[in-house]
């Protein structure tokens, strides 16, 4: 259910976090940290403030944020508590309709990616297809660890931007 940006400005911290806490996967600390910056002129300013909180959080907290994300398309290992946002995003990208061959490749790539980087492959899949996601995984598993850590955060910022657009009307 969309919320008006102006109404968010009037919320106490707990209510604000209840509305925006899932924007950054299982990391309500991001929403809590921007609460004092209310009111926000627009959704872009809110997103920038949230992104800045993550950027300033340090690598340990950033890694925890990355680790909060699920593996893409692997229904066999998907937790029952998978965030509604993630469920919807993966379904819209066609990841619930993979062929058996695609499922096996996805699992193999997820394992290879986790083995190389120590965290799940993250991609803003909102406007993607299963084929583009697989291509991205094949390419990015070759990245240097530092570059991929930075890329994972960039993808998280895109995901958060999409989620804010779904949650907030002006």
UniProtKB/TrEMBL annotation:
Keyword Isomerase in record: no
Presence of the UniProt keyword Nucleotide-binding in the record: no
Annotated ranges, domain Oxo-4-hydroxy-4-carboxy-5-ureidoimidazoline decarboxylase: 10-165
Pathway in which this enzyme or protein is active: Purine metabolism; urate degradation; (S)-allantoin from urate: step 3/3
Any one biological process term the GO annotation gives: urate catabolic process
Pfam families for the chain: OHCU_decarbox
Keywords: Decarboxylase, Lyase, Purine metabolism
Catalytic activity of the protein: 5-hydroxy-2-oxo-4-ureido-2,5-dihydro-1H-imidazole-5-carboxylate + H(+) = (S)-allantoin + CO2
Membrane-spanning residues: none
Alphabetized Gene3D superfamilies for the sequence: Oxo-4-hydroxy-4-carboxy-5-ureidoimidazoline decarboxylase
EC number, UniProt record: 4.1.1.97
Gene Ontology MF terms in the entry: 2-oxo-4-hydroxy-4-carboxy-5-ureidoimidazoline decarboxylase activity
InterPro entries according to UniProt: OHCU_decarboxylase, OHCU_decarboxylase-1, OHCU_decarboxylase_sf
NCBIfam families, per database record: UHCUDC
PANTHER family to which the protein is assigned, alphabetical: 2-OXO-4-HYDROXY-4-CARBOXY-5-UREIDOIMIDAZOLINE DECARBOXYLASE-RELATED
Listed name of the protein: 2-oxo-4-hydroxy-4-carboxy-5-ureidoimidazoline decarboxylase
Species of the source: Azospirillum cavernae
């Amino acid at each position: 259910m969309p919320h008006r940006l102006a109404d968010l400005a009037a919320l106490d911290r707990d209510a604000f976090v209840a509305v925006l806490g899932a924007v950054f996967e299982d990391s309500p600390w991001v929403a809590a940290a921007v609460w004092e910056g209310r009111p926000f002129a627009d959704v872009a300013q809110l997103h920038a403030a949230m992104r800045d909180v993550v950027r300033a959080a340090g690598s340990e907290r950033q890694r925890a944020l990355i680790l909060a994300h699920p593996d893409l398309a692997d229904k066999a290992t998907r937790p029952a508590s998978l965030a509604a946002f993630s469920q919807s995003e993966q379904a819209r990208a066609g990841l619930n309709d993979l062929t058996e061959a695609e499922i096996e490749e996805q699992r193999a790539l997820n394992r290879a990616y986790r083995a190389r980087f120590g965290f799940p492959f993250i991609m803003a899949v909102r406007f993607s297809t299963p084929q583009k996601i697989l291509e991205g995984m094949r390419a990015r598993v070759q990245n240097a660890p530092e570059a991929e850590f930075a890329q994972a955060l960039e993808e998280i910022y895109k995901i958060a931007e999409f989620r804010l657009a779904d949650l907030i009307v002006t």
